[in-house]
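[stage:ingest] chain + small molecule (phosphoric acid mono(formamide)ester)
[stage:ingest] validated
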Amino acid sequence: MSHLSQIHNLSKSDVLEIFSRADKLRTMPPEERALLLQHKILANVFFEPSTRTRLSFESAAKQLGMHVLTMNESQSSRVKGESFLDTLLTLKAVGADVFVIRTKDENICSDMAEKMSLLHPGTHVINAGGGTLNHPTQGLLDVYSMLQHKPELKNSKIIICGDIKHSRVARSTTQCLAVLGIPNIHLVAPEHLLPNQSEFSNCVLSTDLDSAVSDADIIMMLRIQKERMQHTDIPNPESYQENFGLTTIRLNKAQPDAIVMHPGPMNRGVEISSDVADGKQSIIEEQVNNGLYIRMALFDFYLNP
Ligand code: CP
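[stage:predict] done
[stage:export] tokens:
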């Protein structure tokens, strides 16, 4: 596969190879790293807001010696009606080798990957977040981060709590865990924000965070995605915090060495209290830093096979 539109494009050995490349790139001298992909060009095509994904792709590319083209949709010819495919073909014509795409539309990335395979087989499309379904690079960096702290991940109890129904992170992270054969994943949300069990057949679904966190080894919190739900479905922040927020009292029910994760952006005081987010058990900043090396590893994986 020369594209990454979803985790299912990767085999177990691909995932392990990407993790191994991330480890090597982390310790490689910067001047050596900067020679790896000299003159290759990344086109960052973000049509939904992003801080960490867009900037870590940009930083990863630059640290490997690549050039970066950044599209701003509202100032592009998209507003004159240019199609998504014509936009990518234009970027290809000015030199792009890799397209990193974020959109509200769940199917654009796989559609573009299919079309670019036919039109320009040497190019690569990477999904940086598509609607509610896929965020494969976040799934990879989450599982990579989990393995750094819990090398025996098969024996860990993993909790993912929040707006699971609208979460592309929950989907891609649980899919990545499934690719590696990791069991014991619990998804917790208010009833109306739980997904169908059939979509998450490898997970236990629950509405009771207090029971789920008991003895947990890994707790990943997710924000409420207000932008993807009807106004009437948006929970009241105070009652949400009371029932589904990760506070120190709740964290104390987990294993003493449990780690706390969040893909960001966080809503402090809603799904996570500030003392937990900034506390000793939090690896939230490490996740962002790992994202940098996972994205370097992906460029290396696709452009230096
Ligand atoms: N985790 C994540 O996708 O964050 P951004 O929306 O800031 O890229």
